[in-house]
Amino acid sequence: MCFRDHRCEKQCWQKCGDCMVPVESTLPCGHVSKLPCHVDSREYKCLVRVSVKLPDCEHTNEKLCSTDINNARCSFPCDTRLPCGHACAFTCHLKRDPQHLEYKCLRPCTRKNVNCQGEHMCEKKCFEKCDSCKVKVKKKLPNCEHRFDMDCSTDPSTVECLKPCKKLLDCGHACQRKCMEPCGGCLVKVEKEIPDCQHKIRVNCCDVPVRSLCREKCMKVLSCGHTCSSTCGVPCDVKSCVYLSTRKAQARCGHEVQLYCQEIDEGSNPDTLMLRCQEPCAKILMCGHKCKGTCARCMQGRIHITCQEKCERTLICGHKCSAPCSNPCPPCREKCNFRCEHFQCKEKCGYCLPCKKKCGWSCEHQTCRKNCSDFCDRPPCNEPCTRKLGCGHECIGFCGERCPNLCRVCHPKEVEDALVSLNATGDKSSRFVLLPDCGHVFESTSLEKSLSESAHEVKLLQCPVCHVPIQQAYRYKNAAKLCLNRVNQVRFMVIGNLHQVSRKVEKVLDEFREYPLESDFKESCRLVDKLSEFTKRNKKSHGGAVIPYSLEARMEFVTSIIDHFRDLKSKMDSSKREQERLDSANTRMEIRFGRVSNITPQERSDFSKMEQECVDSANSLIKILLGGVHNITPQEHSDYEGEFMRFLILMKLHVLKSSLATIRRHNMKNPTSEKRQKLVECEKEYEKCQKWVDNPSAFFKVEYLEMIRQLNQVLESVGKKFHPALRPRNIVFDLHEGSWYECPNGHIFSVCGLDQGIEATNCNQCHAEILGGSNQFFSSLYH
């Protein structure tokens, strides 16, 4: 119960809390209000609304009884008129911004746009700044009759008229300028005659025709007797005559070259004349054809143009090559000549289908149980044939073989000729073999010896006399099949797999891009990017393995050039540093007595020229090497190798020259007769080699090698020792006979481009030496 004795109406278990019984109470302000029993009427704020007169504005307003009259807000509208003419939209606010300094009028603006020349009202709020009038209206320009759409606020006198002028010029043509521009300068093309030469030219109507504008061919005859080759508008000058005269001069290559008229008076440069020497080269190339280039095109015989004759060499399949000599011999397209005892192949060469019929090689001693296309599982029978010939005499062949059509009794001369044909020495017991493919008969031992001589060469087994492939002679079937397998293996190596070939090309180019290059070679080696773009564009043109191997050969040449340049340049730099050390060590006393001299400006200039000459020579050779992706022919490989060795000699000469300059300074400090004699000998050798290099013609390889050997000896005597020059490998692919071999270890490799007439060849994988043939060739096929 509360103090007013009100009983709690909650459950017994609930907390009673404050008494909430309404009680009518009189508030301090005099108003009566029902309040909860527990609320103190003295602290309660009266919520009764009363009408009062506010002290500030004296407006009568309602407020809550408990609210302080000073805090009550006036609800009467503000009746103040603003400078813009609108009334304030707020309620009475004498206590906040009574002067309307911060007030922003949000009613629509009643003013016209700035610089409006019409009645276009501003569309902004009243408090915002008005803009120039942007309403588009048509206005006439004051200086012409044209009308333009422009902003209402724009002054027409400030607008330039860009429409075409409609006025006529004095010449009668319409003015082609803009309306705003002054008329004149007619640009209509008309034909006018030049007063000086009477030629007609087309010029602008406003231009005066003068002779300097004439592009007709000049018909005047020069003092040299030739017609002027310039245009009519260029003054005639005999020095500009481009015709050849009848006079000749000797070029640096030694040939007589016709001079141009302009060279007669100005003088001719032997080096320039050499670049246009038309003397036929006529050298017999390594392919056997005569070179059809000229002295200039073949670089004085140092790098010949590619041979354009037909190849006509015998391919490893036995057919003739019909491609140009400069191209690698391509896979054969002829009809296959393979024939067994069962059928004649009708496919293209290299695509023979294996014969699945049983082999017919059988005799009373042995029988082959394999299919015709498989290797026979029996050795040749060396027993004499027991059959009788048509004449009744004994057969001179072997058991199980086709009988030779010769008889010792009936044909003694023919039998003797068969013995002599391969230098055989036989007797009455000698056995003979008939080659069914061509019909020739040979003594068996001499025939096998003759065939064994070329056993390591990759080609079809052939008759030693007529070179017809041996296919149907039973005792040589395994040898013939082995040779055919080698030929097919080489054919696949040259043609290659297109995907593998493309990957190898990209790998070769990527490896070279990662090769560290000096700035001297950056320009030339940008050709690698062009080669890469070329190979990507021509991925589907089946160049076979020729392209990657050709690129590999070219890259090896280039890297060899750069590596040797680095080695030799380091020697030149060491000589230069030695000379600079001597200069820095000179004392004033030594210079005064003349015992040691500094490097002169001329000598410094000579050293720079020498270095630049080496760079230019290297870049020139690199550009030739990277100028194509075609197969490097044996002739090109030999020519490139010669230029490579000439480059090495040039570099070594420059190293020797800089070394001699250092020796001279040492000799001036401590002169002795021995040192002077050594210097004289070295200088003589230098002059001899320099004279040899100055000759632009090609030399034999032995001469290059001898010159390098002599230079190395001289350089070693002055303290400059070099590593042996690494010659780039010969990587040339072809499919003609004599270009592929198999070493004793079974590796097949190409020897294209090697010097002809070699007696020994080394495998490029295991380096095994091949000397002639193998006497064990036939016997090894049956073990």
- Total of helices: 14
Into which percent range does the helicity of residues fall?
25-40%
The tally of beta strands, per DSSP, is: 16
Estimated radius of gyration:
54 Å
Strand order of the largest sheet: 1-2
Q: So what's the overall shape?
A: elongated
| Low-pLDDT sequence parts | 587-597, 753-759
The SS-based structural class is: alpha+beta
Largest sheet: 2 strands, antiparallel
Q: Overall pLDDT, averaged? A: 79
- Helix and strand element order: EEEEEEEEEEHHHEEHHHHHHHHHHHEEEE
Task: Please explain how this structure is put together.
- This protein is α+β, with helices and mostly antiparallel strands.
- The chain contains 14 helices and 16 strands.
- Strand 3 and strand 4 form a beta hairpin.
- The longest helix is centred in the C-terminal third of the chain and has 40 residues, at 546-585.
- It is elongated.
- The model is unreliable at 587-597 and 753-759 (pLDDT under 50).
Topology, element by element:
Layout: E1 22-26, E2 32-36, E3 49-53, E4 60-64, E5 136-140, E6 147-151, E7 189-193, E8 200-204, E9 244-250, E10 256-260, H1 261-266, H2 270-274, H3 412-420, E11 432-434, E12 441-443, H4 444-452, H5 477-495, H6 498-513, H7 522-525, H8 527-537, H9 546-585, H10 588-593, H11 601-625, H12 634-669, H13 673-694, H14 701-717, E13 740-742, E14 748-750, E15 760-762, E16 769-771
Antiparallel strand pairs: 1-2, 3-4, 5-6, 7-8, 9-10, 11-12, 13-14, 15-16
Helix pairs in contact: 6-8, 6-9, 9-11, 9-12, 11-12, 12-13, 12-14, 13-14
